[in-house]
């Protein structure tokens, strides 16, 4: 139904990686393989860290929740994208898009928050080993994880309300393989998208604070590690810290690149691949790392 220049649609249409059927099948196959790898890896870590009594320290407790987050994060987009590619139908309903935005923004923030908590755990373990059990008491760990999930829900609610308070009056074609907030904002009629900008600015500030905390934690960690006299002790410490640092660096760097680059009216395959690098690759690689 068209009223003036405002088109009321029941959903959105994704423009994926290609219109060529063979490439669509390849896209579905690769995404399905990565999803199954992520599913298997994160489930194995979640089960082992839940039931193995030797792995009940705070580090493994947070790792369990990171695996749960990775599994949830990749499940928001990939199954829908695989289905769209296999059926050659990029349609997604308005309600499904709302859910995608909510869960995507929630889990993205939760991922950043849990990585920050994990960096503090490593900082406490290495810089204050004698007080570690007091600092990272199980009750404090549970409160930290509760705060992560609660803040994630708040982030998702804020982004979802702000995004879908926008009036969509342009074509409902989304140049992505999921309901990406910047792409949705491009469909708005006027400057009513400023609410989204405000929410994004606030969450970006919070993410910057988290990233700064991680960097400061690792500065203290590395300065402490370099004072360890034995090479074996340094190697053991680095083996627990460097994988976490790599995960943080990969997730943050690709996300920053994606959100700082200008949003194009005709995104290229390169633009879509950058989205894959911060949405699909991290949950697949994290269990291996």
TrEMBL record:
Predominant localisation class: membrane
Gene Ontology cellular component annotations, sorted alphabetically: plasma membrane
Pfam families, A to Z: 7tm_4
InterPro entries: GPCR_Rhodpsn, GPCR_Rhodpsn_7TM, Olfact_rcpt, Olfactory_GPCR
Keywords in alphabetical order: Cell membrane, G-protein coupled receptor, Membrane, Olfaction, Receptor, Sensory transduction, Transducer, Transmembrane, Transmembrane helix
Designated gene of the protein: LOC103211178
GO function terms (MF aspect): G protein-coupled receptor activity; olfactory receptor activity
Localization (cell): Cell membrane
Domain of life: Eukaryota
Family assignment from sequence similarity: Belongs to the G-protein coupled receptor 1 family.
This protein's name: Olfactory receptor
UniProt topology in membrane: Multi-pass membrane protein
Source species: Orycteropus afer afer
Its job: Odorant receptor.
């Amino acid at each position: 139904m068209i009223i003036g220049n405002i088109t009321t649609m029941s959903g959105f249409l994704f423009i994926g990686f290609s219109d060529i059927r063979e490439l669509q099948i390849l896209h579905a196959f690769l995404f399905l393989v990565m999803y199954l790898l992520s599913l298997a890896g994160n489930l194995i870590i979640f089960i082992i860290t839940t039931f193995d009594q030797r792995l009940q320290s705070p580090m493994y407790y947070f790792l369990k929740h990171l695996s749960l987050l990775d599994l949830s994060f990749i499940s928001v987009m990939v199954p829908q994208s695989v289905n769209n590619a296999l059926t050659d139908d990029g349609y997604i309903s308005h309600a499904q898009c709302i859910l995608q935005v909510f869960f995507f923004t929630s889990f993205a923030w939760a991922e950043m928050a849990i990585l920050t908590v994990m960096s503090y755990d490593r900082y406490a373990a290495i810089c204050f080993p004698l007080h570690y059990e007091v600092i990272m008491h199980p009750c404090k760990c549970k409160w930290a994880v509760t705060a992560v999930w609660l803040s994630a829900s708040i982030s998702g609610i804020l982004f979802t309300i702000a995004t879908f308070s926008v009036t969509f009056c342009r074509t409902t074609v989304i140049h992505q393989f999921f309901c990406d907030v910047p792409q949705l904002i491009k469909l708005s009629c006027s400057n009513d998208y400023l609410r989204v900008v405000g929410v994004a600015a606030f969450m970006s500030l919070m993410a910057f604070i988290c990233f700064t905390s991680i960097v400061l934690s690792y500065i203290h960690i590395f300065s402490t590690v370099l004072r360890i006299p034995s090479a074996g002790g340094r190697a053991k410490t680095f083996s627990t810290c460097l994988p976490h640092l790599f995960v943080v660096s990969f997730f943050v760097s690709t996300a920053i690149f994606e959100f700082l680059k200008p949003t194009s009216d005709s995104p290229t395959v390169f633009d879509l691949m950058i989205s894959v690098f911060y949405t699909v690759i991290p949950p697949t690689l994290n269990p291996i790392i």
